[in-house]
Design the sequence.
């Protein structure tokens, strides 16, 4: 019996080591179609690598921005700076509350913000967060927070990518990487903002859709709110502008507004500022720079009045 247990233990160790080595070699050298269950892209879309490299040298900001791509494409740190606010933007593509919490746990102490402006896009409460988890795993150092985040996604792709990312961190394989400030039509701006070359959206009809919030995302969101309130950090929830054709396609926006209002001070800017779908948006749900200026000025006016 003892020999069986020992042999089983040795087998498990050998199998585990073989899996780790095979995963690393396959991810490094195999073509993409042979590795569908791992997705590691350092310096990917959205300049997250640059943002997370810069944040490590930031401290004591007036305002911290959180949220999805609507955050890092809608809150222009230069505009806030001109009005006397020191800010940093920790938005990331498709960031759900699960990823927001990880970033807060890592950087809230050093950033020490007076105010957090959290961009709450309904769609991010309805998805599993796999895409955003992969983005953070590849573009930041991995730790216990990453491990917990990976477990919560219940997705083999996230597990494998975390293991591969952790291996690269231990071997310091990402040290030589430098992300270009300009990538295609995107330009990284100090403070975490990404400016896109101006484009103009051509409105088309949208199918009707319903906001169906996942319970665990809402639970994590509640934990975030509690963390900030326990530290006496002012929390402002913002539904950033999206195109009218997109916004009006939701059949239960009132439900979402009511829910957000329960948690903290909340502003739905789709109901506050009149924007033109063709003049102020790059696509169906991202402002162009013209729209960003209008939106930021109105938000700053609200902050100043407060």
Sequence:
């Amino acid at each position: 019996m003892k020999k069986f247990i020992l042999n089983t233990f040795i087998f498990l160790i050998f199998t585990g080591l073989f899996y780790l080595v095979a995963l690393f070699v396959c991810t490094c050298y195999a073509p993409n179609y042979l590795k569908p269950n791992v997705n590691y892209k350092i310096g990917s879309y959205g300049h997250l690598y640059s943002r997370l490299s810069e944040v490590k040298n930031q401290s004591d900001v007036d305002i911290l921005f959180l949220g999805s791509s609507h955050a890092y494409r809608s809150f222009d740190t230069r505009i806030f700076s001109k009005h006397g606010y020191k800010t940093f933007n920790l938005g990331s593509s498709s960031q759900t509350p699960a990823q927001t919490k990880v970033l807060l746990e890592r950087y809230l102490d050093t950033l020490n913000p007076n105010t957090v402006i959290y961009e709450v896009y309904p769609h991010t409460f309805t998805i599993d967060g796999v895409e955003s988890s992969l983005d953070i795993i590849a573009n930041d150092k991995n730790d216990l927070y990453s491990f917990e985040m990976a477990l919560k996604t219940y997705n083999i792709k996230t597990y494998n990518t975390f293991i591969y990312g952790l291996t690269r961190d231990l071997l310091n394989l990402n040290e030589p990487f430098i992300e270009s400030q300009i990538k295609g039509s995107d330009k990284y701006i100090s403070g975490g903002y990404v400016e896109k070359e101006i484009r103009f959206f051509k409105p088309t009809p949208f199918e009707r859709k319903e906001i169906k919030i996942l319970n665990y995302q809402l639970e994590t969101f509640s934990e975030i709110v509690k963390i900030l309130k326990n530290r006496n950090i002012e929390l402002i929830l913002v539904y950033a502008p999206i195109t009218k054709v997109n916004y009006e396609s939701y059949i239960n926006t009132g439900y979402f507004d009511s829910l957000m209002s329960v948690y903290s001070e909340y502003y739905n800017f789709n109901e506050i500022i009149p924007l033109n779908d063709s003049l102020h948006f790059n696509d169906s749900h991202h402002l162009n720079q013209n729209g960003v200026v209008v939106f930021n000025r109105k938000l700053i006016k609200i902050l100043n009045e407060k």
User: Anything to note?
Assistant: DSSP finds twelve helices and eight strands in the chain.
